[in-house]
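JOB MANIFEST
job_type = single_chain_structure
chain_count = 1
residues = 123
[input]
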Amino acid sequence: VQLQASGGGLVQTGGSLRLSCAASGRMFSTYAMGWFRQAPGQERELVSTVDWRGETTRYSDSVKGRFTLSRDNAKSTLFLQMNSLKPEDTAVYYCAAKPWGGTSLQVQDMVYWGKGTQVTVSS
């Protein structure tokens, strides 16, 4: 499966961005999906994930209440609405998939990765 993330850009502190991740193929509805990010010099970290049923969505503490993950199975697309952005949100954001994935997903659990989209928040 191929994942293509888009929607990144440069935004001021307090601004908003909406990331999209389009998946190829017809199996999107069977994938647990997630957004991860990696800042320069840091390890890739979890931002938000949703299980394959779409029943349980998790967020890192750093983005809880500001970011919202959603999925549109009919369009094979994952979204991340990011509000109240902060400079510390600056990173390359990646979408990832795990077939039949559950709720407890970490970076090492994901099987397919997109190339990432840059998000830069200026202070």
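[summary]
The two ends are 37 Å apart (CA to CA).
The chain has a mean pLDDT of 97.
exit_status = 0
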